[in-house]
Write the structure tokens for this entry.
Amino acid sequence: MTTDPAQLKEKCKKTIEAYKKELSRLRTGRANSSLLEGVFVDYYGTSTPLIQLGNITVPEPRMISIQVYDKGAVESVMKAIGAADLGLNPSNEGNNIRVILPSLTEERRKEMIKKLKDIAEDNRITVRNHRREANDVIKQQVKDKEISEDDSKRLQDDVQKATDQFIKEIDSLLTQKEKEMMEV
């Protein structure tokens, strides 16, 4: 096993990408089709992603429109959106479902920001776990006499710098999303 700072960076980049995707699913005051990405519909006994059952568009800043392909699935889609804990109430117009995004109350915004901070902390912990794994590999290599103590120190410093960089990126994304959520 080799110590490769590039492996640590790759793992951390994947964590950041997952974090960005999770942030895009959190509701702000603006409509965004990615809000419905995590919604699964019970479609004839199978849990199916909503994005596979219809065409999702954003015709207005506060509205999402879903053109459901199968008219028999409209009720299931509406139930799934209602049950998704997004605070959305879909309305049925034949094969078309409209979801109007209500304005976020101050209380709901604070609730969302608390959730946002929890998600950020979970991702920071993941990055720190990647750092710990990399440092464990380095320590094992010193123990096995594959690398010197000096190389070990240098590699651990590199690992720490990379970790700090990724945590800073998580914090930056958190601040950006908080500002977006507080916009009225």
